[in-house]
Amino acid sequence: MSIEEEYADVLQNIELAIVGVYKEKPELTDYNVESAITALGRTYQYEKTSGPDAVPVRPKGELANKVYDAVRAMCEWRLGRENLVDEEGQPMQVEPITIDEIQACLKRIRKSVNHWNKESGTRGYLDYISQFFF
Q1: Cα–Cα distance between 109 and 7 in angstroms, integer?
Q2: Residue 9: CB partners within 8 Å, gap ≥ 6?
Q3: H or E stretch including 110?
C-alpha cells in the first residue's frame, strides 16, 4: 500500500494546514512551504535521537514559520499530543500515529512540493492543493 493510500487522511490534514496559511498569506511560495516542512522533519528527527526536550529546528522567514507552526500543530494532533476542536467546540479524536509515520508523510509532502514547483512555478504546489480545499 502506498503512503498516499495508507495515510491519505494525514496528508490531507497537513495540506489543509498549509492551504490555511496560503489563504491568509497569498504571498506564500512553495519555497516557504518546503523550508517549513524540511525544518519540521528535522525537528522530529532530533526528537527521535535526543528525546522530547530536543530544541526545535525553525525555518528562516516569517512565512515559513507560519507554515511550520500550522503544520506542527496538525502533526502534534495526529501524534495524539494536542487537542483540536471542531466548529462547535467539540474535541476531535484521532488514532495517534508515530513520529516515523509523521516523517514519512512530511517527506511525501516535500516531494509533492518539489514536483509541482518544477511543473508549474513558484506557487505550483500551493495552487494545485488549493483546488481541493476551497
Answers
A1: 11
A2: none
A3: helix 99-120
Instruction: With beta carbons less than 8 A apart as the criterion, state whether 113 and 30 touch.
Output: yes
Domain count, the chain: 1
Residues 6 or more apart in contact with residue 123 via CB below 8 angstroms: 28, 29, 30
The answer to whether residues 33 and 126 touch, using CB atoms and an 8 Å cutoff, is yes
pLDDT digits (tens, 9 = 90+) for 60-95: 999 999 999 999 999 999 999 987 777 787 778 888
pTM, to two decimals: 0.92
pLDDT interval class at 36 (50, 70, 90): very high
Q: Which of 108, 110, 105, 103 is nearest to 44 (CA)?
A: 103
Q: Domain span at residue 8?
A: 3-130
